[in-house]
Design brief:
This protein is of the alpha/beta class. The chain has a single domain, classed as 3-Layer(aba) Sandwich (Rossmann fold). Helices cover about 35% and strands about 20% of the residues. Strand 5, helix 3 (about 120-135) and strand 6 (about 135-140) form a beta-alpha-beta unit. It is globular and about 45 Å long. The structure holds guanosine-5'-triphosphate (GTP) and magnesium ion (MG). Guanosine-5'-triphosphate binds near residues 35, 53 and 56. Necessary for normal cell division and for the maintenance of normal septation. This is Probable GTP-binding protein EngB. InterPro entries: G_ENGB_dom, GTP-bd, GTP-bd_ribosome_bio_YsxC, P-loop_NTPase.
């Protein structure tokens, strides 16, 4: 997929204030500092489109970007940031849960995981919830440039082991690096395929 146009649209604290659900949507979520905003910049080829920071907790709202006037990319605030108060954490959960359940055009959630860290309960629990609720998701292992391929392979095996009996194999997953561009084509091709499904479904429902 060629990205001709990528623009920031809006930031919202509530799903019902988000742009009208007229196009397929993909949301990026994961622990604070995992590299969500950096991945958005890498995929779109626009440095600075999504604000990044070396200190966690930068992204606080539901941020919509519109790509090629055809689909939405959404940058969500990270979870599991220790310095956030209990109240803010509860607010985060309310905002995200509502968004995930009430966004009719949400085609897939991209769960980002730092490929240097062993499986974390917070990520496993989040994916289990998505699975239970039937919300489609894929996994993205970020920052792959920071370690060797064999270390990453071991991590994938570890994830599969920890994800329990419901998974015979890992859910669809991608390895990415915002530094080297690794995984860019794979992720964009995946999105192009799902966009195509959206178009076909819309045509058959017309
Ligand atoms: N080496 C390397 N560094 C990365 C990569 N992706 C992100 N980073 C760095 O990790 C830090 C956090 O990146 P962000 O993209 O801001 O992370 P985020 O998940 O959006 O963080 P929050 O918005 O705080 O939840 C920044 O210092 C990035 O430069 C990557 O693929 N490789
Ligand atoms: Mg961010």
């Amino acid at each position: 997929m060629i990205i001709n146009d990528a623009r920031f649209l809006t930031s919202n604290s509530r799903a019902d204030l988000c742009p009208a659900p007229t196009m397929p949507e993909y949301a990026f979520i994961g622990r604070s500092n995992v590299g969500k905003s950096s991945l958005i910049n890498m995929l779109t080829g626009r440095n600075g489109l999504a604000k990044t920071s070396s200190s966690p907790g930068k992204t606080q709202l539901i941020n919509h970007f519109v790509i090629n006037d055809k689909w939405f990319l959404v940058d969500l605030p990270g979870y599991g940031y220790a310095k956030v108060s209990k109240v803010s954490r509860a607010e985060w959960a309310r905002m995200i849960n509502y968004y995930l359940r009430h966004r009719p055009n949400l085609m897939c959630v991209f769960v980002l995981i730092d490929s240097r860290h062993s499986p974390q309960a917070v990520d496993l629990e989040f994916m289990e919830k998505l699975g239970e609720e039937g919300i489609p998701f894929v996994m993205v292992f970020t920052k792959a440039d920071k370690q060797s391929t064999s270390q990453t392979k071991a991590l994938l095996a570890d994830y599969l082991k920890k994800m329990g009996e419901s998974w015979d194999e890992l859910p669809r997953h991608f390895l990415t690096s915002a530094e080297t561009g690794l995984g860019r084509d794979e992720v964009l091709n995946f999105i192009a395929d799902v966009n195509q499904q959206w178009t076909e479904d819309a045509a058959s429902n017309a």
